[in-house]
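The protein record filed here:
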Amino acid sequence: RCVMRMRRGQLQTEYLILIGLLVFLSLLLLYYAVNEITEARTFSQAEEALDHLASKINEVAGLSPGTRDSAWVEIPSRTFDMRFSGKSLSLVLLRDAEEQYILTRETFADLIGYVNFTSGLQQIHVLKVNDTTVKLGTSPFIMDILPVCLSQAELATTPIVLLLGADFLPHSQVFANGLQISSSYLSPGEII
């Protein structure tokens, strides 16, 4: 009788250990599945945002210079950076262990500008500067300075320097080597 009780006790203990192990494995698999689903959702959101923004850029690129529009995009929280170079637009996402994953879309126009990047719902302004260039963001952007170089003699005659770019503001100030350039030398000749 005593042996029978010990076996029954041992059997119950073994069942409890087995059930505990199964619960632990189930929780581990659930945690892994939730992480994978969350990561897939983040990548899907990033792809949607990138596709929407690239579509808006291509739409504006097909219109006349000076055309302005904006796109509202939902930037996922795990997005590290937005980069654009030439005709490429990229979102950099952080995966587990700080590994970077880069999504890239090609556009019809060269991209310039600066986007004050934050995650969440964000309005990104798009401006067609000329036949080949689209500017992102609202910050002033200098594309060219004419003349490129001035001699010491030309500086004595108060030359006019023409700034070509986009989104200059009336109170925009130009600096060279950390020093503000007098507005009497400047003529803000916006391209648009």
Notes: The chain has a mean pLDDT of 82.
